[in-house]
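Sequence in, structure out. Go.
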Amino acid sequence: MNFKKLTAALTAIAACASLCVPAMAFAEDAVTATADAPSALTAYLDFVDGGWWIKHEKGEEDNLIGTDAEITGDGTYTVSVSVDRAVIADDVSMSGTQFMAIMIPDAETAYPNMIITVDSIKADDKEIAMTAKNYTCSDDGSVTRTNIYNQWGDISKEARTADGLVSELENKEEYNKIIIDPDTLSGWETLSVEFTITGMGEEETESETESETESVSESMEETESVGETESETEAATEKQEKIVVGNSYLNFVDGGWWPKYQGGDDDTLAQTPVEVTGNGTYTVSVTAADLDEAAIQEGVSGVEFMAVIIPDAYEKYSNMVITIDSIVADGKEIAMTAKNYTSSDDQKEVRANIYNPWVSKIPDDAHSTEGMLSELEDTSAYSYRIINPEDFAAWKTLSVNFTVSGLDFDKYVEEETTESTESDTTNNTNNNNSSNNNNKSTTTTAKKTSSSSSTTTASKGSTGATESPKTGDVNIPLAAGAAATVAAAAFLVTKKKND
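Output:
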């Protein structure tokens, strides 16, 4: 036994002896959420490959891209991990696994009867055979999990399935904490697991549904009897609510890495952001306002990175679609060579890549007005590079026109006044003057925009666990040294030990 395996084994034995925390007992009756239930639950795929260094565990050393699932109730979901070729060399092939499980933090207390049933496991498009049935458990009374490959510990007494506690089933031998052969996991780029959630709460009975249907029908009849006049009056007087989705901006780096705008202290381009308030069309731009003619001729040439970004919008508006309509440099429209898609690199910002040379493939969360790209038969029209960088040279103002769709509300429009014709004429004149003044004051220096704190500056030589606005992925360096690998393995063994 080599040193790494010996350390792992000793750690696992100590962990099982002293750190076993029983999960909450399984009850036969369905239990609804408690009063302090979390507002949102997120499931993710915890995975460590056979060599202990390619992994996704929601930690700083992760070097796989995880696609999580928001759990909103009983139903079917998918989680996945993908190889980030920006940090993992092309000649490195995925092989085997040391640990694999679906994790749902903060779910055990709120939903102690939640059941996770694994439906299928796929390596790219190839389905992985399951050698046993999975069960649901918790090792700490907080995180609800289902093991797919866990070498440590025994099946806990609290392990549960849709049929009841494993310990009380006649076919208990069909359930295991290892439900796949690790040798079948090799050479993949994306590993995904589809699963079904049950037991989060009681479903409506047929009688309750019928009663509610009758109640709604009666209510509709009463509403109709009030008369159309009152309804029309209310609709006319109802004022549109303004909902701010976020302040969108154009993230741009020229071909020589100067000038640029990325929301940092060293930005040299002025930024004109725009407030997104619903479905509609918008324009963002950058301006070489502080550069003289010689600097513009010398500096603004080509593109290293370009994207429309809306910070802090993903949590509430992950279904939002950004469609690039046109790109204009000093009044000249730049030809687009492909269609853009909408995605997120950190589940915080929503973005549309225009030119991103650091993306190796279209991400799993990419979507458009046609739906999820992963579900389309043909995605050849879509790309993370939709322009030719050689078309960008010696411009003073670069603007992008785009359309937002997929939201439940439209772009906010100021309430129109109903004054006399003379008043309207006066107001229009004033509004035009005001608009011109606003346009002058809207373009601000890059260091003073509201979006600057939401974007991380890209750097060719950057290392560490920083979110890269270049890549659309989390840029995390590879672990260095055998000693770090052994330490990480020993810690992981301690963590995984207990079901």
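Check: Confidence is low (pLDDT under 50) at residues 1-35, 202-213, 233-237, 417-498. The radius of gyration is 27 Å.
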